[in-house]
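Order emerges. As here.
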Amino acid sequence: MTTPKTRRIRRNEPCVMDIQSMISVERRDEIAIVSLNRADKLNAISRAMLRQLTEIFKTLASEKSLRAIILTSAGERAFSAGTDLSELIDVPAEQAREVADGGQQICNDV
């Protein structure tokens, strides 16, 4: 799966950047709302989602008029279970470490 190109998110533009609708971004004036939409998996973050979140936060960080980012998720059971461990079952240790490091970097960026 390819990652969409980063693009400027304009004020009041109903913009949805998604990976099969797993992540959406909405811009309301000076606020961006980033939503994890994977309630059936407790919003577990896949490797593709991790890459997309990195791009989303990079794009939003460059927006000078942005005052706040709200990170939220779908469902009522959990905000996020964290990394989607089902994707890491057969992954070599080095690759799993890269995924973990990427997840930590997202936390630092937020």
